[in-house]
## 1
Amino acid sequence: MVGFSKLGQKAGLGGIGQSGLLISPELGPRQKISAIFTNIENLPMEKHDDHSWILDYCEKCGKCIKACPEKALIETESCCGANEIEFIQKRCIGCSQGCTYCIEDCPFDEKGYEHVKNKFDKMNAKLAEKKSKSCC
C-alpha cells in the first residue's frame, strides 16, 4: 500500500497533520494525491523541510480528532508518556462516503495556511520571549 500523504510530504508539497492528511499551502487538507513511479535515477530532489512546523501545530490543536464522528482518530499514550494519534482506517467513512468533518474543522481549511502559520509563528515568538525573560 502506498502512503500518498508521505509521498507528497517527501516531494515538498506540504506537511502531514495529525489527521494523516497532507496539508499544503495552496489547498490546506483538501487535495487528492497521485503518484507516478519511475526508475529515472537523476531526478532533481531537493530537501524541503519548510512544512515541518505543521505537526507541532496540529499536536496543540486537535480539532480533527474532536470532529470525527466515527472516532477514526484516537489519542493514545505512548511508552514515554507523550500522546500519539492513531488513525484507524476501517473506522473512517472518508470523503467518498460524504464525511469531511476532520477537513472542515481543520484551521488550515477554515483560515488558510498562511494565516495559521503567521499565528503559530507569533505564538512561538511570544513563548520564546517569555522563556528568555524568565531565565535571566
Note: The radius of gyration is 17 Å.
## 2
Amino acid sequence: YPVGKTTIVWTATDASGNISASCEQIITITDTEKPVITCPVAVIANTDAGLCTATIVLSTPTVTDNCGIASVVNDAPAVFPIGITTVTWTVTDSNNNISNCTQTITVFGPIKSNDDLGVSINGYVGGIAVSNVLNNDLLNCVSVISNQVKITLATTLPSGVNFDTTTGEVSVNPHTPSGTYTFDYTICDLANISNCSTSTVKIIVDNPVIKANTETTTPINGNTGGKTPALTANDKLNGVDVVIGTNPGDVVLTPVTVPTGLTLNPDGTVAIAPNTPAGNYDVKYKICEVTNPTNCDEVTSVVVVSQPVIKANTETTTPINGNTGGKTPALTANDKLNGVDVVIGTNPGDVVLTPVTVPTGLTLNPDGTVTIAPNTPAGNYDVKYKICEVTNPTNCDEVTSVIEVGAAAIDAQDDNVLYADGINGSLEVINVLDNDKLNGNQINNPAVVTIKSLNVLSGITLNVDGTIDVAPNTAGGTYTLNYQICDLINRNNCVSAKVTIFVAVPSIAVIKTAIFNDENKSGYANAGETITYKFKITNTGNTPLTNITVSDPLPGLVMTGGPITLDVNETDEHTFIGIYVIKQADINAGKISNQATVFGTSPNGIIV
C-alpha cells in the first residue's frame, strides 16, 4: 500500500454465483520514519583579506529517506565572524519528517603587530621607553591581550636596551650612550601559532644636560698660597653635581687656559703658589661626559688671590697708677698680620708702627708699649696708631686703643666697736682709718684723704681724723655709721665702709619684799621674832651684768646669797635673802625702815 488512504471494495459470491452487496475497507498508510542527515566536516578558515569576517561556501550534507527528500536548509550567516559559529542543517522528507545536524565554522582573525616609537630617554638615568609593545598591536581586529600571544625577540637586542618578552616592556639602562636604537619582535597567536606578525621598536636616547657654571672663589692669601675648593663644585651633569673620573656617569676635566702661578688640579681645585700677587685670575676649563665624550661644556671661573689681612685691634690696658706712672704692655700684642701676631720691624712679614694721636703725658714707644708719666691724672686716654705691612706698604690698619690711668686704690675695711660707754660717753672709741689703706699703704696721715659720714646718728660723731666719739647719755643700742673715704688728689676716687658701734647702757633694778614671821602665833610682832627679806633682781640694761650683789645697811640684818650674773632682761628672786630679828626698840618705834642697794658690773667695767 502506498502512503495515504487506500479504499478496498469487498463482495461475496456464494457457490451459486450469487453476489452479495459490496462493502468498502479503507487502508491508511502513515510515514513516520525521519530522514537521515550527516553534516559536512567542521571548517577552519581565516578572515577575508582586509576584513574581520570570512565568506565561506559550505558543503552539502549527506541525506537519505525512505520516502524521498523534500528540502535541505541551514541557518548559516552570509559572512562568518571571527570565532566559532555553529551552523544547524535541517532536512525535511516528503512526509514532513525532520532531522537536524550541526557543523562548526571556526574563523581566525588577523594578527597585526605595529611599529613602536618609544619616548625619548635620558641616557644618564635610563628609564622605560615603551611600557608594552602590545599596546598598539591587534589580534582578531581588537587590541591584543598578553595571554593570547607569544612575544619573541626577532633581532639582536642593542647594548643598554632591555626587552621583557613577558610584559612587553622596553627599558634603557642608566649611563647608556645617546643615539637611536632599534630591534624587531614577533608576536604569534597562541590559538593559531602559525598566525604571527613582526614589527620594529625604535628608541631615541638623549644626552643629559651638562653645565659648567662660573665660580668665583673665596680669596686665597697670596702670601702663603693655598688651594681653592673645586671649581667644578657647582657644575652639573643631568642636574646632579659632577664627579670627575673615568666611570660611566663621570666627567673628564680638561684645562683650557690657566694663568702662571696657578695650577688646575685633576680634582678641580686650583693650587696658588706662595708669593702670588694679589688679583683676580681667569681659569678656563672644559668638562666632558665619559659616556658621551662629545657632550661637553666650557666655562671661565675666577680665582681670587688676596693680600694678607692686617688687623690692628683695640686694646684696653689694665689700669696704670697715675700717681707713680709706669709702662703698659705693647698695644700691638693682639694685632695680627695674616692671622699671626705682628712683629714690629723692617723685614718682609714685619709691620711698621706709626703714632697718629698720643695725648700729653703719654709716649708711644717703638715697641708698642706706652709710658705714663708720674702724677698723670686718672682717666681713659685714647692712643691712635697705624701698622703697615713692610711687604705691601699700602696694606695698613689704624686703631684707637684705650690707656687706663687709675687713681691710687683705696681699701676701706668695715670696723666693729664692741662696747662704748653710753652713760659717761667715750672719746675716740676707734679710728676707722687704722685698718684702711691708700695705694696699698696704711693711712697714717689723715691729711691725704677726706672722710665724711654718710648718715647722721644721734650721739655719734665721726671726726676728720677718723676717730669716733660717743657722747654721754647716748641711748643704748647697736649703731651703724656709714662713712666714705676719698683720695685728696682724685676726689672722685672714693670708697665706702661702715663701723658698727655697740653703745652699752647697763642698769639694774631691785624689789625688796618683807615677810613677818609670827613665830609665837600671837598675831603681833614681839621682840625676838624675825622678818625675812626677799630680793627680786632684774637686769634692765642692754649688757650682761656680773658680780651682782645686794647691800642693806639695816643693823643686825643677816644677808645671804650671791654674787650672781644676769643676762639682759634676766631676773633672779631666790638667791638673796635677809633675816632680821625684831628688837624692842622697833616695837616701841612702831616701824622698821631700811633700804637695799643692788650693784652689778658690765663687760666693759661700768658699775651700776
Note: Residues 584-589 form the longest helix (6 residues).
## 3
Amino acid sequence: QRVGIVIMATIFGMAIGGWMSGWIYDLTGSYAAAFLNGIGWNLLNILMMVVVFWRARRSGVVMA
C-alpha cells in the first residue's frame, strides 16, 4: 500500500509539474521563477525524507 501511494504521488507530481512550470512562465515571462518553484518542491521533498528517516532512527527501526 505504501508503494502505491508513493507511486501515485510521483505520477501526480510529474503530471502537475510541467503544467505548473508553463503557467508560471506565462505569468512571469521567465523560466527563472519556474526553476525556483521546482527547487522549492525538491527542498520540501528532502525535508520530508529527513523527517521520516529521523523518526525511524529515533524509534529504533533498522533500515536495510
Note: The chain has two helices and no strands.
